[in-house]
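Predicting holo structure, palmitoleic acid bound.
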Amino acid sequence: MPELIRDPSLDSTLDVLREGYPFLYNRSQRFDSDIFQIQLMGMKAICLHGAEAAELFYNPKLFIRKGAIPRRVQTTLMGIDAIQTRDNGEHRCRKEMFMSLMEPASRQRLMSLLAEQWQRYAHRWEQMDRVVLFREAQEILCRAACAWAGVPLEEKEVRLRARDFGNMVDGFGGVGPRHWHGKQARSRGEKWMRSIIRAIRKGTLPVQEGTAAHTVAWYRDAEGELLDVQMAAIELMNAIRPIVAISTYITFAALALHEYPPYRQLLRDPAEDYAELFVQEVRRYFPFTPFVGALVREDFTWHGFEFPKGTMVLLDVYGTLRDERWWQDPEVFWPERFRQWQGSPYDFIPQGGGEYLTGHRCAGEWITIEAMKQAVLFLNDGIRYDVPAQDLSYDLTRMPTLPASGFVMTEVRATG
Ligand code: PAM
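Done. Tokens:
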């Protein structure tokens, strides 16, 4: 039986925060192994890297999510006991609810709402000296996502709600004030969503069938029970917040457009869907999720390594996207690589891998790709702008990270 390589550190929690995104990849390279063991928050954790390991990790017969996501991530990012922490039939049933919102007509409705907002904001930006794209994109996405979901949003609350969704995401790797802001944002958001769910159920808030608000409010589990109000509030927010989180990828896409100007012309080529290649490369190249975790369902062995029941297992998302075994010249931003990509559900895992319905792959992945393509084409041709001197670096020890300036644009002019 092969010996599992152990990181000599007594506990790696602080190293994770110090090294950030490359923490797992650094060790996988140091140990020259796709599997090794660390101690994290006082517990043993088996760490996996690479596409073959991702295929193992995304086998729902081998792993569960209940108990795998730290409470501090649940109290900020996704809510306590939400779909991300469920397994088996319970997960499947709820995931079907989320996937029902991802039908082409529903996605198309979201894209039309987004297109309207981009246009509206472009005209506003003409009056502004300085536009911070990340902040503006959060508002655009928040307005469109709420309208799409059937959640009323008053003009005066747009900024607060958009920031709150952003702070929930920003809290996932934060300690101290960032964690507290995330928690506060979540409590405020849950209170808001509870009032929406109650109003729908009482009949005082009319919502269209097929919207997220209607679907979640009237969803019945396998026993035929409605979700309790708090759980429904959490899941409704799980349909909206991740859409607002696309602002991070859109900001990175703007950075890529700025740093690699030759792509501007290629994006105009009518003979090819170059935007698709471009946004896939943005999702590969720029960091968002550092790793994902699960617990071993029952004892099993893989390549002779023992996985005892209940052990924490971490999959290296960041490192798997920059390993030269799967990505030639991984440190080069090169969208054309996706012309050759075979579409494996395990090597390209920026939003998780495996199956949508039976596994924990992000339900909103198609929406993310479509919203990014729309935003890239809009930034390329829907407006003209200058990019003044600013700090566009992003810190790999900050999770989630972002270009420091949020991508500032000046002299914005709408072309349409
Ligand atoms: C959303 O749900 O709003 C979309 C954004 C989610 C991306 C983050 C996923 C992070 C997964 C696990 C976090 C563990 C990191 C802990 C770092 C110390």
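The longest helix spans residues 177-202.
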